[in-house]
Amino acid sequence: MADATWYITTPIYYVNGRPHVGHAYTTIAADTAARWQRARGRDVFFMTGTDEHGQKVLQKAQERGMSPQDHVDDMVVHWQRTMAGLGITYDHFMRTTDARHVACVQACLQALHDRGELYQDTYVGWYSPAAERFWTEKDLVDGKCPDTGQAVEKVEETNWFFRMSAYQERLVAHLEAHPGFIRPESRRNEVLGFLRKPLGDLCISRPRARMAWGIPFPFDPDYVTYVWFDALLNYISEPGFLPGGQAEPRFADTWPADVQLIGKDILTTHAVYWTTMLMALGLPLPRCLFAHGWWMSADGAKMSKSLGNVIDVDLLVGSFGLDAVRYFLLREIAFGADGQFSYEGFLTRYNADLANDLGNLAHRGLTMTRNWLDGKLPAPGPPTSDDAAITRLATEVVQRFAAGMDGLDFQGALMAVGDLVRAGNKYIDTCAPWTLNKEGHTARLAAVLRTVLEVSHLALVLLAPVMPGKSTELLAKLGRTEGDAAATLRALLDGGEVLQALTTGTEVEVGDPLFPRFREMPEAIAALFAEAEAAAPPPKPKKKDKQAAGPPATITFDDFAKVALRAGTILEAAPHPDATKLLVLKVDVGEPEPRQIVAGIATRYAPADLVGLHVVVVANLAPATIRGVESQGMLLAAGGKEVVGLVQVDADPGEVVR
Ligand code: MSP
Question: Is any ligand 1 atom within 6 A of the Cβ of residue 339?
């Protein structure tokens, strides 16, 4: 098969409820991968959609007093609206009630029946309506469905079965021959483990008398198709598959899919049901099935509606903007691992990575260009060793980013850009353009600011698939279009030189910072907390409440004068041996020996970023032992529980700060 198209799918989502963060997560990840491959120059086909048949959907329709078709037609509007709100650039939105899909499912059933792949049998089992599947007696936990904990019904009925067991050996052989087929590795092992036990056949029908909301069997009017058998075929029905050599020509360009993204909850249905169905239809298997992890609440539990435990995507988007949400979901946890969500964690990462690092880099570059260089994009100058170092890093970052995005390691890709952005801010501090300006070194000042703007530009060219809105915003400030950015990216991937994309003399626009800093939780989220707190019983007073009361409204000057503040320079920084949030620093405060200071700043700073920073030290604080390490003072920093940034001062070590 020619397979010229890069084809990526998400699961199709049940329309028995509204979309939530889990659905948003899979779809944003797929959208990011699709945007990246398009930017790379590939012909992409990206499909998502809704799974509209089956018992769960029928039940919901009945609860709403609607016909199932009216119910799904109504629900799909919410799903499509949510996808639009998340900036999802699907090429097709699949609905399993579409005529093309129904025709494909029926043709596949007929073909498999003609080939003797299906047979009828009587089954006795326990049916779980919540999980839409049968269990044997020994699978049950306390007589309930092991997956959902809900009640099960004893069912004895005659159904149609697919000879799935016949493909067990072939499937194991495929998994063994293709290590990258099921990812991550842990999920591949899980499937191989599952396949060590004999594989049964798959019940693929439901008697119409019991559950009529499904695709009718073409050769037996008493049955409709099991929802999973129907739903899995969506991946080939839209691309134009029909059995018996009837497929549309474009099908050969699209199938096999390059990536099928799923959550870990639906691994078996994809890795076992779907693959064996494809084998029976004589089709190749997808190149990669990637099962990502689950978002959990901060205490590691599954999400529920209780406070802080459910992630409200609309609220996050409304408060922080869509691009920040897309960034957070992909940056916060490794793709494949589970993650815990908290609004505080979101705020901290937003302020650290986006407001303080990325947004600040761009804003500093633009503001200095406007203030000192007439707002015209400055000309490059002869490179110094600082320029050579950042160019080397940028070249490496492009490669790391591309490898991460190609391999669905979104976190790794975003960390690479983070390294570049932090290096950009450090470059500004080292080159001190304010001094160059003051002393009239205009050519060097221009060269430095050019590099800063090039670094900001490169970061947002790379980040475009994750943060399309902010990327376009920065490009516009630099007088560039998305088309220019795409050309830059392709040139870079072809081995072109980094940091040479911008046009000298272009009028730059400063405008608002890309990511405004939030000093406290945005109002709408704070209101949610307040509401929940008001509804909750009053908490028992804690011992620490006295300290938590905060400083008094006023103090005397004498009180203030008791605090000795000194400028210091960080000489060394290392992780604390016994606490992940702490760092152990050596700080020169103008005394014969540097001070050892333990600081709770590890969530904000990597040790390597601290060396050389000019900070403010509380020099007369009584020494204390913090988790076994002596601390001789304290650094001033902004932020409440989580540090947002260190207070920095342009002064020699030991200088008095007042
Ligand atoms: N309709 C089936 C899939 C059929 S595909 C042929 C289905 N639908 S679903 O609406 O339940 O969506 C399941 C998908 O939503 C999961 O596979 C996963 O992608 C996503 N998630 C649902 N909750 C999630 C989290 N809490 N965290 C991350 N993703 C999760 O199953």
Answer: no
